[in-house]
Structures are given as C-alpha cells and as structure tokens.
Amino acid sequence: MSKTYELSCDCGHVTMTASGEPKLSLHCHCSSCRDLYNVDVLSATGWAHENVDLPDESKLFVHKTDGKQMTRYGCPKCGLMMYGVHKPGIPVIPHGVFRKANDGELPDELAPTLHLFYRERVLDIDDDLEKCDDGSAVGLSG
Fold it and tell me: 67 pLDDT band (50/70/90 cuts)?
C-alpha cells in the first residue's frame, strides 16, 4: 500500500498531498537553494508530478528567481513556504513540511540519502551520508 502524506501550511489555507516514494531525498548545499529557501542547507524531497497533488496557484504566493529556473510557492496568509520547482523541474518539498505533518518528526522513509553541492557548503555536517561536490549524482550539472 502506498503511503500518502497530507500536508498543510500553519493556518490550513494551503493543503497538498504527496504519495508513494519521492524521487530523491537529500541535503542540498548549493547557493541557489540557500538563497531561494533562505536556509544554510536545504533538506528536502523531490517528487514526480504524478505523485503530488499541488494546490491551485491562485491560493499561493509565487516567488520566481531572477535568471534562474527556480520558483517557490507558499501560503500568502501565514507565510509558510510549501514547495519549490527548479532543476530538473520537479516539485521539491522541504523536510520541514513533512515534519509539521508528522508531530515534528521526519518519517523514516523520507530520510535523506546524500548531500549535493557539498563544495558550496556554509555548514559542515558530520554524518555518514555521501557528500557529492556537485549534482551529478542526481543528474544535475553544477
């Protein structure tokens, strides 16, 4: 049976679902993700379009970056950033959205499997995950 995650923003205005398994779950250290999500490290899952039921854009704030193929989407009422879309064009849902829906815990099956663009890091992370200097492990150039 496929797992379904019911996700929402803090105020409940924006809801979405993700089901099955993500295409990837990782920590990204690239400067573009750090800038787009305003974090030191983006911990997130990437999903195939057929595995997510995204909210109607009319319910969201939409922020597109200048000169990059990256957009983030969130709730205009409470401000929670729900997901982004960027290379390779798949929805990327931060782990924090899943933690919020799961009593503060990341479901085990969504645990990150590697670090991308580790050479660009601003924070060293001492774990046993593979640390890739670029995005080639998931088909991204970098």
Answer: confident
The DSSP secondary-structure symbol of 106 reads: -
Question: Would 126 be classed as within a structural domain?
Answer: no
Torsion of CA 35, 67, 95, 50, to 10 degrees: 180
**31 located within any domain:** yes
- Note the pLDDT tens digit of each residue in 91-104: 999 999 999 999 99
Whether residue 142 is contained in a domain is answered as no
The answer to whether residue 141 sits within a structural domain is: no
Instruction: Please give the average per-residue pLDDT across 53-64, as a whole number.
Output: 92
CB-CB contact of 2 with 19 (8 Å): yes
Q: What pTM was estimated for this model as a whole?
A: 0.92
Q: What is the CATH number of the domain that holds 34?
A: 2.170.150.70
Please name every residue paired with 1 in a beta bridge, in sequence order, or none if there are none: none
DSSP strands (E only) in 9-69: 15-19, 24-28, 42-46, 52-53, 61-64
Number of domains making up the chain: 1
72's tokens: 């983030």
